[in-house]
Design brief:
alpha/beta; Rossmann fold; globular; 158 residues
């Protein structure tokens, strides 16, 4: 993995570390943690995985970063890992892919999993984010004004 990628990740986690809550951050990467992460080491859970099953037993984190990992997994393992991170292990997920490698998933497959392509933190990376606040944006028609019983809006799930 390029050194610039680890530097970008270290800078991102250091910036997030200032606002970290008790949950900490989850990093899924085959690369070893850079020494520059020493300042936030207590809040970063660094994991190298071969599939979603390797994450079993972990608590839910407010933020997860996947870097230098998907390129080493097959298509099905990648889909399962990204879905598990999104559903069980993190509120928000950032996936960084190195541009010069063949992508495991296409842009439309990332979108189907709920990941939106965003501006990359470095020139040699492509970045995808799953953020429920962005992906499930509120729509004009989806509010209490258009419900038959507006007093029950967002109170019941069926």
């Amino acid at each position: 993995m390029a050194a610039v990628t680890l530097d970008v990740l270290a800078g991102l986690l250091a910036a997030l570390g200032e606002t970290a809550d008790a949950g900490g951050y989850l990093v899924v990467s085959r690369a070893a943690p850079p020494e520059s992460l020493a300042t936030v080491a207590g809040r970063v859970n660094w994991r190298a995985v071969s599939g979603a099953a390797d994450l079993d037993g972990l608590p839910r984190h407010p933020f997860a970063v996947v870097v230098d990992q998907l390129e080493h997994l097959g298509h099905d393992d990648t889909v399962h890992l990204l879905a598990a991170l999104r559903d069980r292990y993190a509120e928000r997920v950032l996936v960084c892919l190195v541009c010069d490698r063949d992508p495991v998933l296409s842009r439309s497959e990332f979108l189907a999993l709920g990941y939106i392509e965003v501006d990359s933190p470095a020139a040699d990376l492509r970045a995808f984010v799953h953020d429920p606040d962005e992906f499930f944006a509120s729509r004009e028609w989806n509010n209490p004004r258009h419900w038959a019983n507006p007093e029950n809006y967002a109170k019941f799930r069926w």
